[in-house]
Amino acid sequence: MNIGxxxxxxxxxxxxxxxxxxxxxALKGHRVHFITYSQPARLDFFNENLFYHEVIVPSYPxxxxxxxxxxxxxxxxxxxxxxxxxxxxxxxxxxxASAAFMAKQILKTKGIQIxxxxxxxxxxxxxxxxxxxxEPVVTFSINQxxxxxxxxxxxxxxxxxxxxxxxxxxxxxxxxxLERFQRQRKEHFKTAISPFGEKLLVHTSNFRSxxxxxxxxxxFYKVRQQIPSKLLMVxxxxxxxxxxxxxxxxxxxSDVRFLGxxxxxxxxxxxxxxxxxxxxKESFGLAALEAMACQVPVISSNAxxxxxxxxxxxxxxxxxxxxxxxxxKNALFILDDANLPQFKANALARAKDxxxxxxxxxxxxxxxxxxxxxxxxx
Length: 378
Ligand code: GMT
Known about the structure:
The chain is an alpha/beta fold. It has two domains: 2-175 and 356-377, Glycogen Phosphorylase B (Rossmann fold); 187-354, Rossmann fold, CATH 3.40.50.2000. 44% of the residues lie in helices and 17% in strands. The protein contains 15 helices and 13 strands. The chain has helices spanning 13-27, 68-83, 93-109, 123-126, 135-144, 153-162, 187-193, 213-226, 240-250, 265-269, 286-293, 306-309, 324-335, 340-352, 356-377; strands at residues 2-6, 31-36, 50-54, 87-91, 116-120, 147-150, 169-171, 199-205, 229-235, 256-260, 274-277, 298-301, 316-319. Helix 2 crosses helix 3 (93-109) and helix 8 runs parallel beside helix 9. The longest helix is centred in the last third of the chain and has 22 residues, at 356-377. The radius of gyration is 22 Å and the shape is elongated. It binds ligand GMT. Ligand GMT binds at residues 12-14, 17, 92, 121-123, 151, 174, 206, 210, 281-286, 304. This is N-acetyl-alpha-D-glucosaminyl L-malate synthase BshA.
């Protein structure tokens, strides 16, 4: 198939999933065209089936805000026509689904029918999309998509609860490449960070307020009182400064390292004993899946779709959002040497349920289903 993928090209979860999906589809022989405003962060290898089309928004003194959505829609029209795309798959509803709707209408006037598939990822529904500034457009563009997927059953329910949706939403969860995300031998790194065999806790995120990074520090502070341990904070974002301030206040800076936006996160996860995800909202929790693939159990909140991934008492534990005391109690249980090996093995076993080879075919089947349905209605 000839597939157009529209996404945010940054390190955010939706962009990662879209890019990894495109790469996998290209390896399977599909021709994949990425349409976005800069090279996707993980589009980092050559494949004859991968193409990248940059959306350029010309600036003009009259524009207070650059009209990205219009430039994106125009680019989609151009690429669908010229590259003879079979399907347009947009990731994250805002503004990709509405731009795709506009492109579809323009193409219709040229006698071209292009099926549009929208994948909902999380905050496009649970946070930003609900805002009255966007809600009518989000509702409309989801209903106008030919196919809609959500990354967890919880996100599908949230979508039906908060928007007047007439479409079926298919759940296709996030997936993981177990060749890349696997526990590697990195003893030198472990010794450098934990010279006396301290337990290693890890958090990775974009440090937005929904990630509750201060809870991460609070959990670590309490765990460290009971078990010698270190904390690695991977990523960056608006709440990093608050987390750093809390470390100073609690006097734990010597045992906490902020590593910034690391690309090779699997190397850090390879030496970790526990992953912390106390998020307020989390539609799926791709970062937790990456940790589990590297045999790292998860202490998380029970927000959104996390419990669909992190099986309570098996691969880790989920607690109510903000219940730091419960998360500490569970963390101490997992970190007990009598329990840790089993949790590590369970985490990997669960991650295998989401491996690329199981999930990517679901997208291929979905594309075909939507294409076939459109042929019938034309
Ligand atoms: O908040 C983020 O981490 C980024 C956000 C995005 O859409 O870019 O991630 C969401 O999509 C990921 C991929 O589907 C999910 O694994 C994350 O759980 C989800 N984040 C939230 O719901 C907060």
